[in-house]
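Reopening this ticket.

The earlier resolution said the output was attached, but the attachment link was broken on my side. Pasting everything inline this time so it's all in one place.
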Amino acid sequence: MLGREKLNIKLENLRFDALNPRLPVRLQGITDESQVIDYMVKYGNITELMSSIAETGYSDAEPVLVVNELNGNYTVVEGNRRLAALKLLNNPELSKVRVQSIKDIIAEAKQIPNEIPCILYDRRENVLDYLGYRHITGVKDWGSLEKARYLDQLYQIHIETTEPDKMYQKLAKMIGSRSDYVFKLHTALKLYDRANDNAYYGADIKEEDIDFSWLTTALGYSGISEFIGLSKASDASLSTLNEENFQKIFTWMFFKGKKVVKESRQISELAKITEYPAAIERLEKGSTIEEAILYTSAPNDAFIEMLKNAKQQLKQAKEAIEQLSEKPAEAKNLLDDIERLLKTISGALGASFNKEKGDDSTAILQQLASDPEKLELLKKLLGN
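Inline output:
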């Protein structure tokens, strides 16, 4: 056999790919097909695929790509979703989720194929070469995590025969992409795995709760890369990683109850914050990203911006009075607090800066505090 051949193979002789990049880490290497199928049913839209096959059959134009296991069975390197759909059509007991939906599809099925067209490759590496184009730059695009896992598989294959400083250029050429993108994707996977190894730093989350693309986006900002110690654009080993700062970034992006990044566009704001110690301190003390971003400006600019925001909020409150059906119980206390804050701010500004206009009241008070006789005399005069 030269490279590959096409043949039909019975479903019972086909096995899921234990290294499928679309599987989460906890399922990597798992051979129990029921666990793999349950995951695909939950997150891979398998029931929709089942309905399509049950209605129109399986097209010979969509063969799966397999390699021989040398025991009469074959591993499906490309086409695991289609394999799951076909296996469920033939045996609904394989899934413990969406059981009724699966049974309904089978009850109305016009066709239930028990074999599938396959292209047999002699080596897994040959399939990976094809998948690089198909899923990373081709029309059936993988998500960023799946792309990263695929790239890591290629990395492991070629690292022994390629100089480290040329590795990402080689991978980029193989998949028709840019080396900086390949490096960023692979580094993000390393960070993702590091967080996984550390049990997500105590966050009560699952793999599916993490938007991997956010990590990739974050690495595109020099502020974040430098903050976590990864400013070199060719080393994905994490040897220079600042673990403490990476934990902070991970917490602010993904930790339920502690995250401050609510949507991807705020990652740019987080990047700016990492360049200013005062802004970082605000996040560490529980401020929102909108509050912390104010501390990335010069102190005067930040102060004015805060006052402008407060003014705008009060203006909106004034306009909302007409919509009230009754007087809010907390309104008076809040307004009293605001009035006290205004007086405090005004007084602090006066005490700090009126000296520039010839008012040396602060110095006078300090002198009186150090001279009891003068202080007593002043008290008598004020009494009169």
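Reporter confirms the inline version is readable. The first helix runs from residue 33 to 43. DSSP finds 18 helices and five strands in the chain.
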